[in-house]
Specification:
The chain has about 300 residues and is an alpha/beta fold. It is built from seven helices and 13 strands.
Amino acid sequence: MKKEPILVVMAAGMGSRYGSLKQIDPVGMHGEILMDYSLYDAKRAGFKRVIFIIKPEMEEDFKQSIGSRLKNQMEVSYVYQEICNLPKGFEAPKDRVKPWGTGHAVLSCRQKVDAPFAVINADDYYGRQSYEQIYSFLCNEQEIDSTAYAMAGYVLSNTLTENGFVSRGVCDVKNGYLTAVVERTKIEKHGDAVEYAREDGTFEKLDAEAVVSMNLWGFAPSIMKALEDGFVSFLKEALKTSPLKAEYFLPSVVNELISSKKASVKVLPSFDKWYGMTYHEDKQRVSEALRSMTKAGKYPELLWDNQ
């Protein structure tokens, strides 16, 4: 019997640009955090199981802020993303404080993933449509050993903040499938233009209507082998060139699988507007948007009371 899809939430990033533990900063009318709304949408879409990827030192605060009330709504488990959790033969630099990135985060839960699963960021609001689409894909089009994956594709202009730069996977799509994704780590608005910073500090324009990844993916457990193999290759280079800051990006692994024809990624278009807590100044905008959606009837005032 096919197992229920799992929702994997990447919550180990501390958010240096935000200035505090943004994953548990209240934004709702009754102290709800942004993740409450994501999980509410995911539960409405059909998800019954959730794995939180956190840092060990976050566990108590995290359980108090979201885990304790969610345990009556979904099957909840936790895994740690630890800097020292590396393949045999590798050792983390003693001064490294930054997590190894989203690819390493997903790899951290390989022992608990026994079914098709979706991946999201803890500090992003994705909208209900994407959860419904990804859950349907995982239920109807995905198998344990499949290499047919999926990604929610957002319009770039719907995913920007007024308060600085963001990182996005800029996508090429053909006939509804992802053909390439390039991680751009510094995208920002300059007047009416959307641009990203090159390594030399100059800027290049991006199409505001481009499809981008917000790290909402649909995978089979088969992705774990690719993540393991890719992480070894990544570490061999990163430990020589950028041992304290290099990150193993999930979209980069997907891109390699696509280019080598080892996997396909179906793009599920989403026209929902993204809201996120990249900067502390984003909090007011996010709170106002959620309050407006609540008043419009998209969410109950008390999210979990009627569940």
